[in-house]
Structure formats: structure tokens, C-alpha cells
């Protein structure tokens, strides 16, 4: 089953087919409104604006599975993303990305591209690793999403071509996007 066969829900409850994004390069992220990585909303917005005319989009899926860092409902989260962070790319309803309630789209994404070895080269990476190991050790196993702001890059044909961890460089992500445009 390809990515275009999945349905996603907007914060207002409307259902949208991933077919909507056919022939676009997509960066699909699980996000959170109160995470140490929220600065990435602005980075993602800049990428969205820079490459929108070239057939690129960012799709944001709020998730509250990591330290209760997105307690708001989908509508509140979308409003906050727009008002506080200047987000103009699509923000969908809250979802689960791990466990029995994993949204089918994210189940598909995380099984299309393997998780990389968890890097522990910086203080931020070490602190994140320690937090996950202490609170969510199962998320370090297999292809689970490890934390908020994990990103999946999808090419124009719907192939999942890359997975980026929250600490990966926005410059590396931009380079990967540019190679697909």
C-alpha cells in the first residue's frame, strides 16, 4: 500500500486523502507545541516558503506521546502553530506515532525507512537519548519514532526516501529536499 492510499484528518474533523499531495515532495513531521525542538517550526516554515513554488510541502502531525508536550487538541494546536510560530503549511489533527494506536500513515512511514543509529555526539543528543531511555525505552527499539520532530522525506512518486531525527541538521534536510525538486 503506497502513501497515497492513506487518509488523514484535519483539526476540524475533515478527512483528506494523501492523494492531495500527489506529485509533490513532502516532508512529513510529528510535532509538539511545547517541545525543546519547537524552534524547528520556523525552520520548517522557511523551507515551505522557499520551495512551495517548486512542488514542495511540509505536513505537520501533532503528537502528545513524548512527555505530554502537546496537550492541546488539534484545533488549539493548529491555531498556536499559526499564531505563535507563523506556520502556514498544513497542520493536521493530533495522532499517535507509536504503539497500538499508531496512525496508519506513520506506521507506513516508519517501516519504509529504517531508523538510524542514535547519535550521541552533542549534549542535546545525549540528553535526548537519556530521556528516551529513562521514560520510553521501547522507542529506542526498531523503527519506532523516538521523539517529536522526526521527519520523513517523500519524493514526487510517493516513495519514502529519508528519515531525519529531531537533532538532524536543517541544512542536511534542505539539501535532501533540493535533490528531489
From TrEMBL:
InterPro entries: Glutathione_peroxidase (IPR000889), Thioredoxin-like_sf (IPR036249)
Entry keyword annotation includes NADP: no
GO molecular function: peroxidase activity
Keywords for this protein: Oxidoreductase, Peroxidase
UniProt family annotation: Belongs to the glutathione peroxidase family.
Cited PANTHER family: GLUTATHIONE PEROXIDASE
Record-given protein name: Glutathione peroxidase
Amino acid at each position: 500500500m503506497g502513501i497515497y492510499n492513506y487518509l488523514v484528518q484535519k483539526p476540524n474533523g475533515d478527512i483528506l486523502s494523501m492523494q492531495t499531495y500527489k506529485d509533490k515532495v513532502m516532508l512529513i513531521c510529528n510535532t509538539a507545541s511545547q517541545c525543546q525542538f519547537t524552534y524547528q517550526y520556523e525552520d520548517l516554515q522557511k523551507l515551505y516558503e522557499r520551495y512551495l513554488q517548486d512542488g514542495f510541502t511540509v505536513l505537520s502531525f501533532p503528537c502528545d506521546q513524548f512527555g505530554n508536550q502537546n496537550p492541546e487538541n488539534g484545533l488549539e494546536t493548529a491555531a498556536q502553530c499559526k499564531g505563535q510560530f507563523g506556520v502556514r503549511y498544513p497542520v493536521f489533527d493530533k495522532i499517535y506515532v507509536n504503539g497500538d494506536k499508531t496512525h496508519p500513515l506513520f506506521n507506513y512511514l516508519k517501516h519504509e525507512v529504517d531508523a538510524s543509529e542514535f547519535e550521541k555526539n552533542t549534549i542535546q543528543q545525549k540528553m535526548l537519548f537519556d530521556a528516551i531511555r529513562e521514560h520510553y525505552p521501547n522507542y529506542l527499539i526498531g523503527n519506532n519514532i523516538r521523539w517529536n520532530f522526526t521527519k520523513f522525506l517523500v519524493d514526487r512518486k510517493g516513495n519514502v526516501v529519508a528519515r531525519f531525527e529531531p537533532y538532524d541538521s536543517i541544512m542536511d534536510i534542505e539539501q535532501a529536499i533540493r535533490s528531489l525538486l
